[in-house]
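Structure first, sequence second, as always.
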């Protein structure tokens, strides 16, 4: 468990952790589990789970799988999410629409201002496509 000891020295509290990968690792170590154990007990392919603990994941985490992991680790799913994934979990469409409307902009005006097509803005607001992390950072990362 040398990895766990080094990790727990780096983070003494989950409040210090800002990435999903590190949160997964933190809570897994607290439970004394290996990556293999989490994968087997949740029915997630081992390589997939290992990838979840890798840094700089650019795509959202599947919430159904994070729910299984959270249950196994004895935490709320929201305890595992970073700001971007929490944004998706809390309903990106409603939040993007609220932000756009707070600026008093139409979808077309909002898209033009930030360099997106109005159709893309519409798809985000209807939750038919997920906003990319890089785009989320551009719009909301400093809030």
């Amino acid at each position: 468990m040398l990895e766990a000891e080094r990790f727990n020295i780096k983070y003494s509290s989950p409040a210090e952790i800002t990435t999903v990968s590190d949160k997964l690792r933190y809570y897994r170590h607290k439970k004394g589990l290996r990556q293999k154990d989490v994968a087997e007990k949740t029915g997630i392919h081992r390589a997939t789970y290992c990838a979840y603990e890798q840094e700089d994941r650019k795509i959202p985490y599947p919430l159904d799988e994070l729910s299984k992991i959270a249950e196994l680790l004895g935490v709320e799913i929201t305890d595992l999410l970073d700001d971007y994934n929490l944004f998706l979990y809390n309903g990106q469409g409603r939040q993007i629409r609220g932000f756009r409307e707070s600026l008093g902009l139409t979808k077309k005006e909002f898209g033009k201002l930030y360099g997106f097509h109005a159709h893309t803005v519409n798809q985000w607001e209807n939750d038919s496509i997920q906003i990319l992390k890089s785009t989320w950072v551009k719009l909301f990362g400093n809030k």
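Margin note: Residues 27 and 58 are 21 Å apart (CA to CA).
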